[in-house]
Amino acid sequence: MSTQYFTLTIVLLLVFFTLQSFQQNCTSSLFSETETPATLDDSCPISYVNFGKACLPFSTIYKQKKEISCTSTSDCLFTSLECVNHKCLPKIRLSGDSCVDDMQCISNVPLTISSSVADIIGPKCINNRCQNLKVERKNDGEECFIDRYSKIIYDCKVGSICSTYGTGSKCVPKLSVRKGESCFNPTTDDKSTIFNYKYCESGSYCKSLSDGSQICVEPLIKGSICANSTTRCQDGTVCRQNSPTDSTFTCQNIATYGESCVLDSDCAYGTTQFVKCYNNKCQRIFGTVTNGICKQDDECYTRYCSPEGRCAERSNNIPCSTSNDCPFREGCACGGKGNYSNSFGRCASNLQCYGPYTDMLSCVFNLGITFKEYYFFGGFGYSQFVDEESSVFTRCRNAYSRFYSCFRKVFISTGIPTKGEMEGVDLDAYSVYASPILPGRSGASQNQLVFGLALSIMMLVTLIL
Secretion signal: which residues (predicted)? Predict the structure, then answer.
């Protein structure tokens, strides 16, 4: 009897320890707004921020921080605010938007060879509005500069350019030269004499030669055989491979959406990182709608290409104990709590939000804003951006709504209850069937400074503010 009792005890202990080994403890840093975050690094749902280990409404804390006293930008908390003269000020304002300081104003005019000096400098805060500086013209030989106090650009008359001249700058004439003639080189090294800058006439460009000289040459015409994508073809065309099966490079029209391509650079806006050559067709990244044909995840709006080769909605039902159990360590959701015992959590996949995130980037890009100014984009917490006085936000409201509502849906689908609202944002806007916002603005695929424009900038940068 004692032997049977001993055997039964051993069996029960084995069963107990076996069950214990299968029990799961879920640990998460994702909290619902009704729970108390354990640390300041824990995340609250969209429309909330972790303020002193409490999930508080974004709008409430943003209004408190805007224009409060500060000693450094870190006091302002939000990435869209900056400490200026001991005040937290919004810094994402376009021409025409309200302002109190130059820092708030950003440019949305893509720079080209024909850009004015005022466009190069960008808008400043004048009479509480972001606007370009006033321009007054100077004759050849006269000084050209920017008066930071009166906010006036003393630029050169039409046909001349502002050039560094010893320790200062003066207006010098531009001369139009023909094919085969030297270009951009000053006619004299005598700094006491006004020299000329020589520009190529329309239809040609200034090419640097191996000996360091520069001459005007004509670009290759459409249909001409060319070397590679760096070859200069006539405006509106690029040097690209004829087809996947024909390795010959010729000057051709830039491919638009859906047209044939071999390389990303064959596509319009291919240099923006928003457009790629997928399966020999130009497409926006994360731009194929649900049920569309795909071969890889980053073709799809939901960033998920199913085994059947169709774009589909990504599942949030992957079980997890910690974020280490999730693909790409996306975050393990424990029902909005920091942890609970005897149950798995679910992976909170934000990968499905890459489509609406690219919508947001494309919309802002289409306003004319350059990549270096994309610092105000974010996701959770203090990177959220809502500003009714910024035309960046108001003109891209739909894209921001898609992006933020996608993150909200991720929280809800993983079992984190959230009912927050975001002033100015539709938190029900996201749809896996949404039409992607395509990049499309004049000159975007060639959005780089050319040499002639750089001459002006080299002088101006040393004089601005």
Answer: 1-23
